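Working notes for the structural subgroup meeting. M.R. asked for a predicted model of this chain before we commit to crystallization trials. I am recording the input and output together here so anyone reviewing the notebook later can reproduce the run.

Input as submitted:
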Amino acid sequence: MKALVTILTVVLIGGLITVIWLLVTRVPQMASQEPMLPPAINLPDGVAPQAVTLGRGWVAVVTGDDRILIYGTDGTLRQEVAVE
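Returned structure, recorded in token form:
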């Protein structure tokens, strides 16, 4: 019984180290990338996407200048919302 508890402790510590290592190595890479836009969406010049949300028949893009741009799936701008 003592050996099983020791083995379980070693496995748990190894798993915890693995999870921490993956978080430290993968999360900074993901945070530095810009969100992927569908190919039909063309943002205005000088606008960088901060987040992208896909819905049925629409795509919402949150921009760095505090706006939400809602596009149709064909790439036409449907609505612009200012975030205050």
